[in-house]
Amino acid sequence: MLARTSTRASTARARARSSRSSNAGARAPGERAARRHRARTRASNDPAATTATARERARCYGCGVGVQTRSNDVAGYVDVATYERKATHGQWDMMLCARCAKLSNGAYVNAVEGQGGVKASPGLITPKELRDQLKPIREKKALVVKVVDATDFHGSFLKKVRDVVGGNPIVLVVTKIDLLGNAVDHDALERWVAKEAETRRLTLAGIALVSSRRGSGMREAVLQMMRERNGRDVYVIGAANVGKSSFIRAAMEELRSAGNYFAPTKRLPVASAMPGTTLGVIPLKAFEGKGVLFDTPGVFLHHRLNSLLSAEDLSEMKLGSSLKKFVPPTPECAEPPGFASFKGYSLYWGSFVRVDVLECPPNVTFGFFGPKSTRVSLMKTADVPETISGQEEAALRLVQEIDFLPPMHVDGPLVDLSVSGLGGWIRVEKTSGRGDGPIRAHIYGIRGLEVFARDVMPTA
Ligand SMILES: Nc1nc2c(ncn2[C@@H]2O[C@H](COP(=O)(O)OP(=O)(O)OP(=O)(O)O)[C@@H](O)[C@H]2O)c(=O)[nH]1
Ligand SMILES: [Mg+2]
After folding, report:
1. DSSP result, 161-176
2. How far apart are CA 243 and CA 218, in angstroms?
3. Could you report the per-residue pLDDT of 31-66, keeping only the tens digit for each?
4. Where does the secretion signal sit in this chain (predicted)?
5. Ligand 1 nearest atom to the CA of residue 274, by list position
6. What residues sit around ligand 2, an ion, with C-beta below 5 angstroms?
7. Ligand with smallest separation from the Cα of 147
8. Tens digit of each residue's pLDDT (9 = 90 or more) over 350-360
9. Backbone phi, then psi, for 372, in 5-degree steps?
10. Overall average pLDDT of the 218-226 stretch
11. Of the given ranges (196-210, 264-278, 329-343), which has the lowest mean pLDDT?
């Protein structure tokens, strides 16, 4: 009986072996090499070789922060049982912290001091600590992929990028293109992006317009990255929440579909709508041969709305949805009566931006391109309530002024007022060539917010 069982078992083992080997035979040679490479990497994580340093170095693969088993309220928390199980098998690079698990399920869990005004408390990481992790980049020879959010180009651009990356070549990836709608002229947009980079005297090794969510433009972006890196490491950098980790996830998919089986598909950096998702530099062995791809923590820019709002507000507002266009109808003019114009009116965008229109010909409109959740309302400037004393924090502050004479006898968009970190802008547009006159407006915003007056972005 015993003999028969063992014969059956050995036959089953032999069958399993043969099916494994025939599966392996069906794999592309590149994939076999990649598997061997991963096996070697795992072997180097042999528990026998476990040292205190390996424990110390254990990082959450989702956010890159050091793992800890002490506090569930702090980033990097892994429960003791899971930690011990993974540690026994030397799986130091296979731990996902509790915060990342929640973020992956759509929760908004903050880990950064100052986000939405959050005060310092134990376990919160400061924006400076995040930024300091980028310091080694400028000392190395590397390719930099700088990611910018298409819906917040000016707010997310990182003006002083050369301070961070030194003289390293930069490929500029403009992501979230899908949020601009389907009617975007890509060539015109690319020219606009190139001009904006030129204005900032930033020489680029390439420009790619992508949607990590839809995968569009990813092939070209990955080709540019591979072409420019020349065996060097690649650092993906950018402001917080612009879409760096999502870009990396989409790039891994693209690399694999192009036959690069070295690109990992599991245990990738976590992407979420909460700014400050990535907290440490995350290395990914994505290329055959030399070179590592690094995800990095986002740079916190205090003038961006998504840094000024709390996790609760962000969750409620659901920023990052497709841009909706809303053009309020032109009201009857406050002064002189009987005319239709925005002159003398104030346009509120949610509770964080207000445009007071001081001068405006009748044929000028204000188009709001932004998340659906952000309502636009109108009132006469004369009726705007005075700041109630004691509510100084809630008061809006003057952040931008526009004062110009549009070209005569032409119609079309004139200027975009881009609200930093909102993912959207206000487009001032002349709807007919007739009726000219100056446009003067004061733009108010919540404390810290910046509004950029920029050349019109070529979107519908
Ligand atoms: N529609 C759309 N959303 C995107 C795209 N790329 C990223 N997002 C969303 O943008 C948010 C931020 O994405 P992440 O990849 O986490 O951004 P990040 O730059 O890594 O953020 P930090 O790690 O916090 O600095 C998430 O909600 C993503 O789903 C895109 O191409 N299209
Ligand atoms: Mg990230």
Report:
1. HHHHHTT--EEEEEE-
2. 13
3. 665 666 555 554 444 444 445 566 667 999 999 999
4. none
5. 24
6. 244-245, 277-278
7. 1
8. 888 999 999 99
9. -55, -35
10. 97
11. 329-343
Cα 326 to Cα 350: distance, rounded to the nearest angstrom = 13
For residue 238, the ligand 1 atom closest to its alpha carbon is 19
Testing ligand 1's pocket by substitution, the residue of 246, 247, 281, 322 carrying the most ligand atoms inside 8 A of its CB is 246
Strand partners, 68: 77
Q: Phi and psi for 297 in degrees, rounded to 5?
A: -70, 145
- Alpha-carbon span 422 to 155, nearest angstrom: 9
- Ligand 1, atom 32, residue with closest C-alpha: 176
Given this structure, which CATH class describes domain 106-317? alpha beta
Above 90 in pLDDT, residue 75?
yes
Question: Which atom of ligand 1 lies at the shortest distance from residue 278's CA?
Answer: 23
- Give phi and psi for 86, each to the nearest 5: -70, -40
Residue with CA nearest ligand 1 atom 7? 243
As given in the structure block, the two tokens for residue 212 are: 């990590």
Task: Measure 277 CA to ligand 2 centroid, in angstroms.
Answer: 5
> Which of 346, 364, 244 is closest to 293 using CA atoms?
244
Q: What is the dihedral angle through the alpha carbons of 366, 367, 373, 378, rounded to the nearest 10 degrees?
A: 20
**pLDDT (0 to 100) of residue 13:** 45
Which residues surround ligand 1 with Cβ inside 6 Å?
Answer: 175-176, 178-179, 211-213, 238, 240-246, 271-273, 275-278, 298, 320
Say which DSSP state 355 is in.
E
Spans of all domains in the chain: 45-98, 106-317, 324-454
15: pLDDT strictly greater than 50: no
Tell me 135's DSSP state.
T
> How far away, in angstroms, is 134 Cα from ligand 1 center?
19
Which H/E stretch holds residue 451?
strand 451-454
CB of 237 within 8 A of CB of 160? no
CA–CA distance, 203 with 180 (Å, rounded to integer):
25
- Kind plus residue range of the DSSP H or E element containing 73: none
| Centroid of ligand 2 to alpha carbon of 297 (angstroms) | 6
Nearest CA to ligand 1 atom 21: 241
Q: How far is the CA of 276 from the centre of ligand 2 (A)?
A: 7
Residue 460 to residue 455: CA distance in whole angstroms:
14
| Ligand 1 mean position, distance from CA 313 (Å) | 18
Query: Is 390 in a helix, a strand, or coil?
Result: coil
Number of Cβ within 10 Å of residue 114's Cβ equals 18
From the CA of 235, how far away is ligand 2's center (Å)? Answer: 12
Angle at 380 between CA 375 and CA 382, to 5 degrees: 130
Q: How far is the CA of 245 from the centre of ligand 1 (A)?
A: 7
What are the backbone dihedrals phi and psi of residue 102, each rounded to the nearest 5 degrees, phi first?
-70, -45
